[in-house]
Write a structure and sequence with these properties.
The complex is a heterodimer. Chain A is mainly alpha-helical. Chain A has one domain. Helix content of chain A is 70%, strand content 0%. The longest helix of chain A is centred in the middle third of the chain and has 28 residues, at 166-193. Chain B folds into two domains: 5-224, P-loop containing nucleotide triphosphate hydrolases (Rossmann fold), CATH 3.40.50.300; 229-294, Reverse transcriptase/Diguanylate cyclase domain (Alpha-Beta Plaits, 2-Layer Sandwich), CATH 3.30.70.270. In chain B, 38% of the residues lie in helices and 24% in strands. Chain B has 13 helices and 14 strands. Chain B is globular and about 70 Å long. The chains are: A mainly alpha, B alpha/beta. The interface between A and B is large, with 51 and 76 residues.
Chain lengths: 283, 339
């Protein structure tokens, strides 16, 4: 029995009770002006975490490369005549598909943050309620940027040519990033709603796989049944892919760009409030 | 008298479980309130409500006069919370963890760095400051977590089972920290499963069980109710239990003895009882494998207050409270063995 009798000795009498408490230096200042700084502090946290665990970048580096190689050389000849022709068609599409997939990790990370109790700390601090979520989303732009650079860079090594001009291609990357920033709120919402980070992945694949395959990402939808073609047409990924394809290899862009922007707005309007509500409810 | 921490009639239900069923708590400024109870009593739920992480179903609570529901953001500016599970970021270094909290509390980077260095020094983590928290031991994580809750110099500090899972030496260190916080003027609410911890630190102890307050008293008052020290004797030869019983009856004639499978525990007056017990056991040639003078375990407290052993039903606090079975404190192992 390690318990010494001395453990029963009462604490030294507490000192005079009338003394003023130490001023709450930092905590007493306003939290209103700090929103951006708070978001940046938490975005920095996410970036450090990504930096410390490089395997967290697999889904935006190795994975798109595998898809690119696999689809180009396995299906390319059969679908597009030659692998090279198919690569021209595939790469802009794959960018859209990978970007939808890349958001999955965000929801998983947020979910496990909550499980581990890290967010309890944030919730007990005088910061805006949305700060932890917005910070994580902002930091995720870095991953999406890596994804775009890797996909385009590796694609070019495989022989992909930008048929328009560098400005248009950069705009294609820009619109992809912007879309990713909106689309990832679905993942944030799912991350706030389901119980485990494994379930986040399951639910997100249920959403992302139909969206990315029932689209014009991999094949021309002309041979699909008409009901499916209708879905493909309204599918936000199709609109993004059409836009990026137009910006990189030429073709009409205006209409699909408009629909892409409309979809981005819808995603934000629907899923940001849902995600924040899920976060508030998650005790 | 106004209290820095005040709760009245707090209730909270999770599904079928009534986690809190009308809990009142009060702590005066600059004091330590100990909330004592077993796993699942509702301690964590009460702390989470006071720290604005949960809303009560009914009842009201104020911290420094601010309502925890209506003025939640004001409450957050003056409280620090250290949960049962160290909520430090494992992928960040000790310094990065604290600087981040400082920035979230609107310190500029230089002040945040200075404050974090100061706290790391205080908690004996300076050497580990540049290492990621993943590599920290359990005790180091606890200390970093506590440091994180102190970055903003909170007036009111909630410590949810700060020593569960710590070895005895580290427990004493944590006790020193709590004493220093109070000396510096903070008001502390501390939950614990150990009477000796509440006794060592608290000015007032509230005992809760299944979401209800079953006792609220000073440590001295509580000990008067439940009896102070106990002696426990475990003879090497269990057939000599009857001799032990007779010896203890002579030393503490009025008290009820509690007989375990191969040990006997009895409340005693004063510390000379231990010497008398040792002398009598020696005189009769009874070898013992265990002989201790100790405060009642939580189970013994409950037995006295409620006439029942601690209810081991599933924890109403949910997953956050369930994992504390891992604690290594000797007292609780004894309590389980006795139950």
């Amino acid at each position: 029995m390690s318990q010494a009798p001395t453990a029963t000795v009462a604490a030294p009498a507490p000192p005079a009770r009338h003394r003023k408490p130490a001023p709450a230096a930092a905590a007493s200042t306003s939290s209103q002006g700090g929103y951006h700084r708070h978001v940046l502090a938490l975005a920095k946290r996410s970036l450090i975490k990504t930096w410390r665990t490089p395997e967290a970048l697999i889904d935006v580096t190795v994975q798109p490369i595998i898809f690119l190689v696999m689809f180009t050389y396995i299906f390319g000849g059969a679908i597009g005549g030659t692998s090279q022709d198919y690569l021209q068609f595939l790469l802009p599409g794959l960018l859209g598909q990978s970007i939808a997939m890349a958001g999955v990790a965000l929801g998983q990370n947020l979910n496990s943050d909550i499980e581990k109790g890290v967010f309890d700390r944030f919730r007990s601090l005088p910061i805006g309620r949305s700060v932890p979520l917005v910070g994580a989303v902002i930091a995720d732009i870095g991953r999406y940027l890596v994804l775009c650079v890797v996909t385009l860079g590796f694609g070019m090594l495989m022989g992909f040519r930008i048929e328009t001009n560098p400005m248009a291609a950069t705009a294609g990357i820009g619109i992809s990033l912007a879309f990713a920033l909106c689309f990832c709120w679905i993942s944030v919402f799912v991350g706030m709603t389901v119980r485990t980070s494994g379930a986040v992945q399951g639910v997100m694949f249920l959403i992302v796989l139909p969206l990315s395959f029932a689209s014009n990402t991999f094949v021309n939808p002309d041979t699909m049944p008409s009901w499916l073609q209708t879905f493909v047409k309204v599918n936000p990924i199709s609109q993004l892919v059409t836009t990026v394809r137009g910006l990189m290899i030429g073709g009409p862009v205006a209409e699909s760009l408009m629909w892409t922007l409309v979809w981005m707005a819808i995603l934000l309007i629907v899923f940001v409030p849902l995600a924040l509500r899920g976060y508030r409810r998650r005790a | 008298m106004t209290h820095t921490i005040e709760a009245e009639g707090l209730t909270k239900r999770f599904g079928a479980t009534q986690a809190l069923d009308g809990v009142d708590l009060a702590a005066a400024e600059g004091t330590v309130l100990g909330v004592l109870g077993p796993n699942g009593a509702g301690k964590t739920t009460a702390v989470r409500i006071l720290a604005t992480l949960l809303r009560p179903d009914s009842g009201r609570a104020t911290v420094a006069g601010y309502d925890v529901v209506r003025d939640a953001s004001k409450v957050r500016r003056i409280v620090g919370l250290t949960g049962q599970y160290a909520s430090v970021d494992e992928d960040l270094t000790g310094t990065q963890n604290l600087v981040m909290i400082g920035q979230l509390l609107n310190l500029n980077t230089r002040d945040a760095r200075a404050r974090s260095a100061e706290l790391l020094e205080w908690f004996d983590l300076s050497e580990a400051a540049g290492r990621v928290a993943k590599t920290y031991s359990g005790g180091m994580r606890r200390r970093l977590d506590l440091a994180a809750s102190l970055v903003g110099r909170p007036r009111v500090i909630f410590l949810d089972e700060p020593t569960t899972g710590l070895d005895p030496a580290k427990r004493e260190d944590m006790w020193d920290v709590v004493r220093r916080l109070v000396t510096d003027g903070s008001t502390v609410l501390l939950t614990t499963q150990y009477l000796d911890e509440a006794d060592a630190l608290a000015d007032q102890i509230t005992v809760i069980d299944r979401g209800r307050v079953i006792a609220n008293n000073t440590p001295e008052g509580l000990k008067r109710t439940i009896g102070g020290q106990r002696i426990r004797v475990k003879p090497a030869d269990r057939y000599r239990l009857d001799d032990v019983r007779r010896i203890l009856a002579a030393i503490s004639p009025q008290a009820d003895q509690v007989t375990g499978r191969d040990e006997i525990t009895v409340p005693v007056d004063g510390e000379q009882a231990l010497a008398a017990t040792v002398a009598a056991l020696t005189a009769e040639g009874i070898a013992v494998t265990e002989l201790s003078l100790h405060l009642p375990s939580l189970d013994e407290v409950f037995l006295t207050l409620t006439g029942q052993h601690i209810d081991e039903s599933p924890s109403p606090d949910g997953s956050t409270d369930a994992g504390t079975d891992t604690d290594t404190h000797p007292e609780s192992e004894k309590a389980e063995a006795a139950a």
